[in-house]
From TrEMBL:
<dbReference type="GO" id="GO:0005509">
    <property type="term" value="F:calcium ion binding"/>
</dbReference>
<feature type="domain" description="Pentraxin (PTX)">
    <location>
        <begin position="25"/>
        <end position="227"/>
    </location>
</feature>
<dbReference type="InterPro" id="IPR001846">
    <property type="entry name" value="VWF_type-D"/>
</dbReference>
<dbReference type="InterPro" id="IPR013320">
    <property type="entry name" value="ConA-like_dom_sf"/>
</dbReference>
<feature type="domain" description="VWFD">
    <location>
        <begin position="423"/>
        <end position="599"/>
    </location>
</feature>
<feature type="disulfide bond">
    <location>
        <begin position="285"/>
        <end position="294"/>
    </location>
</feature>
<feature type="domain" description="VWFC">
    <location>
        <begin position="360"/>
        <end position="419"/>
    </location>
</feature>
<dbReference type="InterPro" id="IPR001881">
    <property type="entry name" value="EGF-like_Ca-bd_dom"/>
</dbReference>
<dbReference type="Pfam" id="PF14670">
    <property type="entry name" value="FXa_inhibition"/>
</dbReference>
<protein>
    <submittedName>
        <fullName>Uncharacterized protein</fullName>
    </submittedName>
</protein>
<dbReference type="InterPro" id="IPR000742">
    <property type="entry name" value="EGF"/>
</dbReference>
<feature type="domain" description="EGF-like">
    <location>
        <begin position="258"/>
        <end position="295"/>
    </location>
</feature>
<keyword id="KW-0325">Glycoprotein</keyword>
<keyword id="KW-0677">Repeat</keyword>
<keyword id="KW-0106">Calcium</keyword>
<dbReference type="Pfam" id="PF00354">
    <property type="entry name" value="Pentaxin"/>
</dbReference>
<dbReference type="Pfam" id="PF00093">
    <property type="entry name" value="VWC"/>
</dbReference>
């Protein structure tokens, strides 16, 4: 329950009937067939603690369960539809629905004769009464302490959704007239008088209003037969006849408040009874009470908007649940100064405090799992526990490797395993490189070299260079570039990344044991480690023996062919080999010079010569 900051006296149109002249009620509505296109629909924007619904009807409908009238609303406390808040259906044997519960009235209505029908309900004790032709047929109790909330009244159709979702099997065919709705429960004597009169006006919904909201399929006909002989002049002092459309607004407004003589003490909760001086009496309700007999405990300030089930205190609070001023997904529970959300059975409240989740299943990304089901997500074991996904890291078993084996874990693996120790290419801080097959030579720190390359599948290649004493290794794999620095920096693409870092199972970057290096692992099994002392160690994945090239060689177990150039020929010297794998900048003037030398040659010869020059470049 939230405090209202605006202390001004609020006047809402929901508490007052229109001051405009009342249209003529001398007509009946004919629903010619049981079609979902035939209806009269009107919205109600009031909170009702009591009601009287009265109308005339005539029908011979027998095939369908025709619905004469239905009222539905969305309960803001639970955000659910109450589609049969007040419904009368099936002329074969009229059923009355009150707040979703059905009652057999044992009334046959499809005899082709005009009949009067009325229903009253009072939230004080939830008592409802059904009348047929001025006689009480059945009564009961339902929804004590509740409100009939703002919603939609439809004549001729049952609502499976608010004001819509009509069904042909439940559509009404027949006549309806003089349908009115009042905001208080009339007595049996008043209902008997009411059912005999025409031309009256309800103070919530009036019959002339419904005429304006009828669909095109509904036919407006002349005055109903029971109303043909209605009196022209009415006694304004009569408790029922004072609702006549010809009376002034003031007279009709006082009419709803009339009570029996003050001598009978009709007023409740100790409220005063006053004589109006015109032969009528009414209860004078204080700020804390409302209703014809002051029977409802209300807010002290009209800013509270509705009559609540308990007193607003002096700070003027309003029920957010009842007025829909909450964001609960299912059930709103009012509290003093606030509200809280709760959930129906089989659901639980999520951490946001407003959303209810189903405990029978869990959603993890695009997948759905039943309660109690388990699955693996990346390197975590997950289970569904009453709607909540619970995950924990996979615990890897302890592994001891044999001689000649090393512990290895690829990015796609969760736990390391023992593999044959792969061949290693080592580049020391003094620029001495030892190939996979054991051949050693020294690099020039001024150049950038192709250190290793997958010359068979083309899956990866790596370059090494130096910035003063800092070693830099660039590895290319699947359109990704990872750059490792001996100072511990790691870059993917053009952005620095924090370690550890993963790229969708393609590669991972981490700090190995010892903490003095940065290490790259690919899903193929390639491992490149750049140490803080500028030492670079590269190990190959399984299955690439004899299929690599670059400074590190081909890993075929024979050192004698390690000095193989980029052009797949044996170098005569180490310098020739190093120049072949050096990434020297190309000079545009050399290209122009070559083109000029070949300009006088036949085109096929020139093209062949230029191609060979490019290979040597």
């Amino acid at each position: 329950m939230k405090k209202i900051e605006n202390k001004e006296n609020i006047t809402s149109s929901q508490f007052f009937v229109s001051l405009c002249p009342v249209r003529s009620s001398q007509f009946s509505l004919n629903f010619p067939n049981a079609s979902v296109l035939n209806f009269a629909k009107i919205s109600l924007n009031r909170f009702l603690r009591a009601l009287t619904l009265s109308f005339l009807m005539k029908t011979i409908q027998s095939k369908e369960r025709g619905t004469v009238v239905s009222y539905a609303f969305i309960d803001p406390r639970t955000t659910t539809l109450q589609d049969n808040a007040l419904t009368i259906s099936d002329p074969n044997n009229l059923l009355l629905y009150v707040f979703g519960e059905s009652f057999d009235t044992k009334t046959v209505a499809n005899d082709g004769q005009w009949h009067s029908c009325a229903v009253t309900w009072d939230s004080t004790d939830g008592e409802w009464v059904f009348y047929w032709d001025q006689q009480e047929k059945i009564r009961g109790n339902r929804a004590a302490g509740e409100h009939l909330l703002p919603g939609v009244l439809v004549v001729g159709q049952d609502q499976d959704d608010l004001g819509s979702a009509f069904s042909g099997i439940e559509a009404y065919s027949g006549h309806v007239a003089e349908m009115n709705l009042w905001d208080y429960a009339m007595s049996a004597a008043e209902v008997q008088r009411l059912s005999k009169e025409c031309g009256l006006v309800g103070n919530v919904i009036s019959w002339p209003e419904l005429h304006q909201h009828a669909s095109k399929g509904v036919v407006s006909e002349g005055i109903a037969e029971p109303c043909a002989g209605s009196a022209v002049s009415r006694d304004q002092q009569d408790d029922v006849l004072c609702h006549d459309a010809s009376n002034s607004f003031e007279t009709r407004a006082r009419c709803s408040k009339r009570v029996s003589a003050c001598s009978t003490s009709p007023c409740q909760n100790g409220q005063a009874c006053v004589d109006n001086g015109d032969g009528s009496s009414q209860c004078q309700c204080g700020d804390s009470y409302e209703g014809r007999y002051c029977q409802y405990v209300c807010a002290k300030n009209p800013a509270c908007e509705i009559c609540l089930s308990s007193l607003c205190d002096v700070d003027d609070y309003v029920d957010e649940c009842l007025t829909g001023r909450h964001n609960c997904s299912h059930i709103c529970v009012n509290e003093h100064g606030s509200y809280k959300c709760s959930c129906p059975q089989g659901m639980f409240l999520s951490d946001d405090g407003v959303t209810c989740l189903d405990t029978s299943y869990c959603t993890d990304g695009p997948s759905t799992y039943l309660d109690g089901e388990s699955w693996q997500r990346d390197c975590e074991l997950c289970s569904c526990k009453r709607g909540v996904v619970d995950c924990s890291p996979i615990v890897c078993p302890s592994v001891t490797c044999q001689s000649g084996e090393v512990l290895s874990k690829k990015p796609a693996q969760c736990c390391p395993s023992c593999v044959d120790e792969p061949p290693k290419c080592t580049l020391l801080r003094n620029k001495t490189l030892t190939t996979f097959d054991g051949l050693s030579f020294t690099l020039s720190p001024q150049n950038e070299y192709t250190m290793f390359e997958d010359c068979y599948y083309g899956n990866f290649y790596g370059y090494v260079s130096y910035d003063k004493r800092k070693a830099i290794v660039r590895v290319y794999i699947h359109c990704l570039t990872a750059t490792l620095y001996s100072n511990g920096r790691a870059v993917v693409g053009d952005r620095d990344v924090q370690l550890p870092h993963r790229e969708d199972g393609i590669l991972s970057l981490d700090v190995p044991e010892g903490g003095d290096a940065v290490q790259l692992r690919t899903h193929h099994g390639l491992v490149v480690t750049v140490h803080s002392n500028a030492t670079v160690v590269t190990s190959l994945p399984d299955g690439l023996a004899g299929k690599t090239c670059g400074l590190c060689g081909n890993a075929n177990g024979r050192a004698r062919d390690d000095l193989t150039t980029r052009h797949h020929i044996s170098a005569k010297t180490t310098d020739e080999f190093l120049v072949s794998w050096s990434l020297r900048p190309r000079k545009p003037k050399d290209k122009k010079h070559v083109a000029a030398l070949c300009s006088k040659l036949p085109h096929p010869v020139a093209k062949n010569a230029i191609g060979k020059c490019k290979m040597i470049w």
